[in-house]
Amino acid sequence: MSTDRRRLTGPSDVKTPLRGISSGASTLPKKFSPPDSSPRKFFVKSGLTKNANGSAYLEAGTTIVEVGVYGPRPIRGSFIDRASFSVECKFLPYLTQPNEVIFNGSDKRNARTSLTHIEHRISKYVETAFLPSICLEKYPKSAIDIYVNVIAFDAQTQTLSNLVAWVVNCTALALVDSAIEVKDLVTGGHARMEHDGEVKMDAVVDSGDETVEGTECVASFMKMHENQMVAIWVESNGSLEVDEQGLEKLMNGCDTMATEVRKNLNGYLLSVANGNE
């Protein structure tokens, strides 16, 4: 028996217009000048988890993330006029979580039954980033659940903020694969500002130098909605304070990385639609 997905489907011979392709003119104003650096290359693949409504797999350096989307699924109980939405992020037990001594304390349970503080932080950020984009009102009396699994992560060279950005990008692809109606494709960017003011996108940390102070920022955007920012997270590992000019530089890096990632995801989705994947 097929599941009632509570959505209107178009005719079978409908042709979808290609959006986002223009002659070079941009209708959105450029807020900041682009930085000199660029994000790392990454690998993505969707539709690998067969028992999920949508799934995505992403590799970026030593980071490997897998996301599964389940729903919209009917729920029992009182009627609700819009779907409930939840995100749960978990690390595999053998992985060292970023800054786990600071956030998780002495919690080193191998068979933990609940999320750690770091997993809670990632889950809440992803949930905040995607809530404005999902058309929850299209799925009354339903539940949409997203499960994020961090399969590989190097806590010595990559930071929590960097991981969150790639989790957001992987989740965006999984939502598209699930065919859940969304207002826009949410993509995230990560930037790090050193003490001298230099900003680097998708920056990794030298494992041999853990004393370098810097401020990191991860932000998520909906580009087709006037480049609306839907979530932001700024933190520093030292005594540096972020002023207005510094925050503008960080936002510049995050915005540019999110744009580059979106271009790559759009290219992948077009290749899937054309049957090249």
From TrEMBL:
Region of interest: Disordered: 1-38
Keywords tagged on the record: Cytoplasm, Exosome, Nucleus, RNA-binding, rRNA processing
Keyword flag Cytoplasm: yes
Main location: cytoplasm
Entry's Gene Ontology cellular component terms: cytoplasmic exosome (RNase complex); nuclear exosome (RNase complex); nucleolus
Pfam (any one): RNase_PH
Cellular location(s): Cytoplasm; Nucleus
All copies of domain Exoribonuclease phosphorolytic, residue ranges: 40-181
InterPro entries reported in the protein's UniProt record: ExoRNase_PH_dom1, PNPase/RNase_PH_dom_sf, Ribosomal_Su5_D2-typ_SF, RNase_PH
Record family assignment: Belongs to the RNase PH family.
Protein name according to UniProt: Exoribonuclease phosphorolytic domain-containing protein
Organism encoding this protein: Candidozyma auris (Yeast)
